[in-house]
Amino acid sequence: MKNISPSKSKKSRSNNTIAPSSILNVIAQSNPDKSGAGRNAADKSLRTDGQEARERLFECAMRLFAEKGYARTSTREIALAAQVNISAISYYFGDKANLYRAIFNDPVGNPTIHPSQFLQPDLSLRAGLELLMKTFVDSFKQSERAQNCMKLHIREMLEPTGLWSEEIDRQIKPAHLALVKFLAKQLNVQRIDDDLHRLAFALSGLALTLMVSSDVIAVIRPSLISKEKSIDEYANRLVEYGLSMCEQERQRRHALMT
Questions:
Q1: Pick from 217, 206, 225, 182: which is nearest to 134 by CA?
Q2: pLDDT tens-digit series, residues 109-164
Q3: What is the pLDDT of residues 46-90, one digit of tens each?
Q4: DSSP character string of the chain
Q5: How many angstroms separate the first and last alpha carbons of the chain?
Q6: Exposed, middle or buried: residue 256 (CB in 10 Å: 0-12, 13-18, 19+)?
């Protein structure tokens, strides 16, 4: 599938697909406006329509990829669900693979923490745990998008395309190692060991609780996640649980030294 761009407007028209620049030319010719107000209004309208079309493609593709996987989801099916011309996929994303990558790395449904955030010199233990918990819990407020992204990640593990391994190497591993260094500093541990890594993995697991267990929580105790205020309270509790875990590890290490 060829990419559609304003420079290919003639070819696009021959394939029943009109590039944005061609649309603007038609509008300008049929509605001359010496002041330029008509052109500006058309520009704004097209930008809005384009943003909406791109967002529909993104949301529909995310849902279909989560439900069916990358291989079993066709571009025609995505375009039909989004109610756009199939050529819109190549125009906005290049191809199906790039659309999948954009969805997989979506910062709303797949939040990440940059390692430098854990390595701030004055970051307290509580502040660091708030950063960890709330980064992931806040994304859960985008409920459907977050859940579809979680399903997509689970499916990626079962039917790998290579993006999960890439994410581990580029994002998860560096953030984890930074968290371990942060915990070593907070617990005054001179030599990083397996127990620090265990603690870091356990704390990360807490942060992912809502995204992983939301379906179960919604059935057993829906009031825990029914409102944004409830979700914020959940995040606050996770921070307290994390502090308790860190304190327990501090005491365990102290007992070994005495």
A1: 206
A2: 788 899 999 999 999 999 999 999 999 888 777 667 878 888 898 889 889 999 99
A3: 344 678 899 999 999 999 999 999 999 999 999 999 999 999 999
A4: -PPP-GGGHHHHHHTT---HHHHHHHHHHHS--TTSHHHHHHHHHHHHHHHHHHHHHHHHHHHHHHHH-STT--HHHHHHHHTS-THHHHHHHSSHHHHHHHHHT-TTTS----HHHHT-TT--HHHHHHHHHHHHHHHHTSHHHHHHHHHHHHHHHHS--SHHHHHIIIIIHHHHHHHHHHHHHHTT-SS--HHHHHHHHHHHHHHTHHHHHHHHHHHH-GGGTSSHHHHHHHHHHHHHHHHHHHHHHHHHHHHHH-
A5: 69
A6: exposed
Residue 250, class by beta-carbon neighbours within 10 Å (0-12 exposed, 13-18 middle, 19+ buried)? middle
Q: Give pLDDT, residue 31.
A: 45
- Which residue pairs, CB below 8 angstroms and at least 24 apart, start in 214-217? 214/140, 214/143, 214/147, 215/147
The C-alpha atoms of residue 117 and residue 211 are separated, in whole angstroms, by: 22
| Size of the chain, expressed as the number of residues it contains | 258
Angle of helix 209-220 relative to helix 228-257, nearest 10 degrees, comes to: 120
Other C-beta atoms closer than 10 Å to the C-beta of 95 total 13
